[in-house]
Each structure stands twice: as C-alpha cells, then as structure tokens.
Amino acid sequence: MKKAVGALILAACGGTQAQSVPATPTEVELHANSDSSITISWQAAAGATSYRIYRGTKPGGEGKTAIAETGATTYQDSNLSSTPIYFYQLTAVNAAGESARTDEDASKTPPPVGTGGLVAGQLSGNSLIFSCQDALLGGFDWFQRLNGWFPQVFR
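The structure assignment produced for this chain is given below.
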C-alpha cells in the first residue's frame, strides 16, 4: 500500500519512480536446426523491454558487443558454419540498464544426419548401439561430454 501511495505522490508532483535494471533471463535453451542456424529461447525477465544476445566461438569469447537485440524471447542465429562451437550469453535490458549476463551455453550446427529405420541394438565392444525410427534432421540439442559433443533428441 505504501508503494502505491508513494507512486501516486510522485506522479502528482511530476516525478517518476526509479526503475531498476531487469533480472537476468533464465532457462536459456539452444536448439540446432538443419538450416545451419541455432534457435535460442529463454524465459522472460521481469522488467525487461528487450534482450541482447552475445556470441563467441570459444569459451568466454562472447565479447562486449551484442550480435542482436530483440523484444521477443526467442532468436534465430542464422547462416552459421558447421565448424566452430558457438557460445552464447544473454542479458535483459530496460531504460535503467542491462542485467548481468546469463551463464554461458554452447551448441553446434547443423544437427547430425538421422539414421532412420528401427534397428535393434548392435553390439559394439561391451556396448549396444541403438538407432531410432524416422530420426529427424532438426530437433537436436548438443551436449558437451568429456570425449566430445553428443546430440540429444528432444520432443
């Protein structure tokens, strides 16, 4: 109640209530697409009017200049090469300033070529290798493992 009264007094006196920097975006997801693009999506940050996307090709290499700014909660980074791993960070922006950056997230593109067909596990050393039916070219997220990058399908 006191905040509302304070805001009314400020407005009546011609003042404005101080705006604060928005919260950092959360739940950032990267999605590699078959057209050599990566779609980035995130949850809206309270108080944000836009979002800045930073990209690099090495860990910590996103730089100081955003590659894009958008009012949406998704962004498609297009015309990417299949060679590097792309590292991303995001910030939320409003008239008061820019939030802290999100944790770094990384992806590759394009997604791996699907195997198609339904094949029972094939013995490979002490392991079985499985392929899935009608595997898609799109719809993969990449995860870094100790021995390289591994695509994971999400539906």
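Interim note for the steering committee: The domain at 19-107 is CATH 2.60.40.10 (Immunoglobulin-like). The radius of gyration is 21 Å.
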